[in-house]
């Protein structure tokens, strides 16, 4: 993950939405074929994201994400992607790295052009 190494060496500024910390924990403890224990997941998150700046959302940010979902007529769990997109917009990040680009490109051009899949 070159982007992770670049963020850790401060070649780029790494940002992460506070909500994404919970999603990362969920994925690490649920999806890998070789199960990762909660304690190992916690250590991985702490060790790898120390140099990342966290982006916290306010009630107004949540409302903006809901407004976007309504405008795009998107139901359900997509709200969690809209929250991440809101954090990207709030922080004025240049790039949104994701393994699920379609989840974000459907949110409109304001976020779609920032979406990249890590190599």
TrEMBL record:
InterPro entries: PIN-like_dom_sf, PIN_dom
Gene3D superfamilies membership: 5'-nuclease
Origin superkingdom: Bacteria
Annotated ranges, domain PIN: 12-106
Pfam entry (one): PIN
Protein name: PIN domain-containing protein
Taxonomy of the source species: Bacteria, Bacillati, Cyanobacteriota, Cyanophyceae, Oscillatoriophycideae
């Amino acid at each position: 993950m070159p982007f992770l190494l670049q963020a850790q060496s401060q070649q780029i500024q790494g940002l992460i939405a506070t909500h994404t910390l919970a999603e990362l924990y969920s994925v690490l403890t649920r999806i890998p074929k070789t199960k990762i224990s909660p304690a190992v997941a916690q250590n991985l998150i702490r060790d790898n994201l120390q140099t990342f700046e966290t982006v916290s959302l306010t009630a107004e940010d949540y409302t903006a994400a809901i407004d976007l979902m309504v405008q795009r007529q998107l139901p359900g769990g997509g709200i969690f992607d809209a929250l991440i997109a809101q954090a990207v917009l709030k922080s004025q990040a240049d790039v949104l790295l994701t393994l699920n680009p379609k989840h974000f490109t459907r949110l409109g051009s304001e976020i779609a052009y920032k979406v990249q899949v890590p190599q």
